[in-house]
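Table S2 (text version). Query chain:
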Amino acid sequence: MEYRPVRTLDGQSEIQYWYQLVVKNRVGPCLTETSFGFDPLYTSSKDSKACPLGHTRGLNLLSELYLHEKQLKGLDIAMTTDYIGGIAAIQAKRRKCIFNIMKD
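Corresponding structure-token output:
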């Protein structure tokens, strides 16, 4: 994990006292119990926003995020390897950030 400076829109200078959190730890893919889709009423297994290669799981996260407990072992903060979101620029794909508050 590291903090990078936030730059102005033109990229010419850094904004004082503002930093972006960059998380490098990855916890792997979400378990199959995690539900993705367009909305709760449209939970088709063939989500049109899902990547055929499995990188983007769906447009939205519709349930709790399920991970193996061993994936979080020793990590305080991490990102999923699965993306959630659209393929087009309307809704950018993103990963979920995980904060581990369990005791080891």
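Notes on Table S2: The chain has a mean pLDDT of 80. Strands lie at 2-7, 14-22, 36-37, 60-61, 77-79, 97-99.
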